[in-house]
């Protein structure tokens, strides 16, 4: 499943109805970076280059806000990986534990296998009915001949 994602849900800043609060401590946070800071890291240099020679009214002052307020772009993307369902891979079962091991192994080299997806949030949830992995990322490129480095 690919979608816009909910950072507050992934980070457990609130507990949804389908979450077992007694199992929240079983969740694994692999990566939890500030989205605005990652935008600065990825795009500030490119924005500076883009702004050179541009009229003030054409310059980008804050790329994060430009994308956030845009109608077509998304600030980030999310992919969710899950093996099986609550009938065959439920949390707390032998099969569910196997799913956790497989997902844990899968996530270890995800960034290396996907160098143009800058992962800033990665969470393995075991407090819902089936173990699953949320990976939040920003697609970007480097050394592109276009006007910016991303999206």
Automatic annotation (TrEMBL):
InterPro entries: Mob_Pre (IPR001668). GO terms for molecular function: DNA binding. Pfam families: Mob_Pre (PF01076). One of its GO terms (biological process) is DNA recombination. Belongs to the plasmid mobilization pre family. This is Plasmid recombination enzyme.
């Amino acid at each position: 499943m690919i979608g816009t994602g909910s950072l507050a849900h992934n980070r457990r800043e609130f507990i949804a109805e389908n979450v077992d609060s007694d199992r929240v401590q079983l969740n694994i946070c692999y990566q939890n970076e500030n989205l605005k800071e990652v935008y600065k890291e990825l795009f500030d240099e490119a924005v500076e280059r883009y702004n050179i020679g541009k009229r003030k009214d054409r310059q980008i002052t804050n790329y994060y806000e430009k994308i956030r307020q845009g109608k077509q772009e998304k600030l980030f993307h999310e992919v969710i990986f899950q093996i099986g369902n609550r009938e065959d891979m439920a949390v707390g079962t032998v099969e569910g534990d196997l799913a956790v091991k497989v997902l844990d192994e899968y996530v270890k080299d995800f960034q290396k296998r996907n160098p143009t997806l800058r992962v800033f949030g990665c969470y393995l949830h075991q407090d819902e009915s089936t173990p699953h992995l949320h990976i939040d990322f920003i697609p970007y490129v480097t050394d592109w001949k276009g006007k910016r480095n991303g999206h």
